[in-house]
Amino acid sequence: MAKVRGAIVVDSAVCKGCALCVEACPAQVIQLSVELNAKGMNYAAMALPDACTGCANCAMVCPDSCITVYRVKI
Amino acid sequence: MTTNDIVKPENLVYAKTPVLSDAVMHYCPGCSHGVVHKLVAEVIEDLQIQEQTIGIAPVGCAVFAYNYLEIDWQEAAHGRAPALATAVKRLHPHKYVFTYQGDGDLAAIGTAETIHACNRGENIVIIFINNGIYGMTGGQMAPTTLEGMKASTCPSGRNHERDGFPLKMSDLLALLPGTCYVTRQSVHTPGNVRKAKKAITQAFNNQKAQKGTSVVEIVSSCNSGWKMSPVQANKWMEEHMFQQYPLGDLKNI
Ligand code: SF4
Ligand code: SF4
User: Fold this and answer.
1) Is A51 near chain B, with CB under 8 Å?
2) Could you list the residue range(s) of the whole structural domain that residue B93 is in?
3) Which domains are delineated in chain A?
4) Which residues line ligand 2 (CB under 6 A)?
5) Tens of pLDDT along B104-123?
6) Would residue B4 count as lying in a domain?
7) ipTM of the complex in this document
8) pLDDT digits (tens, 9 = 90+) for B126-137
9) What is the CA radius of gyration of chain B?
10) Residue B62 and residue B182: Cα distance in Å, rounded?
11) Would you say the CB of residue A20 lies under 6 angstroms from ligand 1?
């Protein structure tokens, strides 16, 4: 089976730090950052980038459509 | 392989649909409205009907829906969205017309308009967000509030002897001959988001096939009104809301 690697890009200015993406990720890739964005929210970011498969589960559940997902076969 | 090697246009698998505007939504963090707005926008993109779709915005939290989807909109008076959708669809029979309504709008002040539009079999789509509470005005009890569920106007919990029973609107609407499709979905997990998108797609396709009224209820969370975190609210919804409002198709003909 071809291995896949994924990555997400979070629009950290738009993110409201709801953590629904953290909960939805099957690979525990995402955590809320310690830093705050201009809204005063702890925004989502990849904490374990190597584990991402690009499944897009996080982007599906994001109410603010701030996650873009990329995937490559390796 | 680093993130920079992966993040390239040729590897893109999921991005925000251009049918959504760039306006930042006013909803609370984790609100189901944002997910449902996105799904409606994605379905409009997939069916390539952006220029032919007219949305009817409600009164309630989703009153500003017209700021978020790049389509034509009308704003209805409270609860009157199905009546306005009736008029718009009859004047523009080749357009796709949908209402987007919460439970305070659809199941309280708009009960009559909802039932009569469905009973006439108006060829429209009704997207119904049911979070069991009046979100915008401060979390008051709604007709859909669960028994025992606390709200600002029933701080000790809804009691049917005093407050009546939770109203299952979709069950009522499924009984009417004018509805062709009545389904209850949710958007709290990736799998449910995919199913809800399929349901919304089917509803728009039914309109194209002139089959009658399609109703897609989305059992939703209002984490601010329920006074929980977004993640807790989704768990609470699974444990409590789905007992009263089980997911699945109620009618599909
Ligand atoms: S794409 Fe899938 S694996 Fe990657 S962060 Fe999102 S949910 Fe996790
Ligand atoms: S689901 Fe979206 S808004 Fe919520 S924390 Fe994740 S990226 Fe931010």
Assistant:
1) no
2) 14-252
3) 4-73 (3.30.70.20)
4) A 10, 15-21, 43-44, 62, 64, 66-67
5) 999 999 999 999 999 999 99
6) no
7) 0.95
8) 999 999 999 888
9) 18
10) 21
11) no
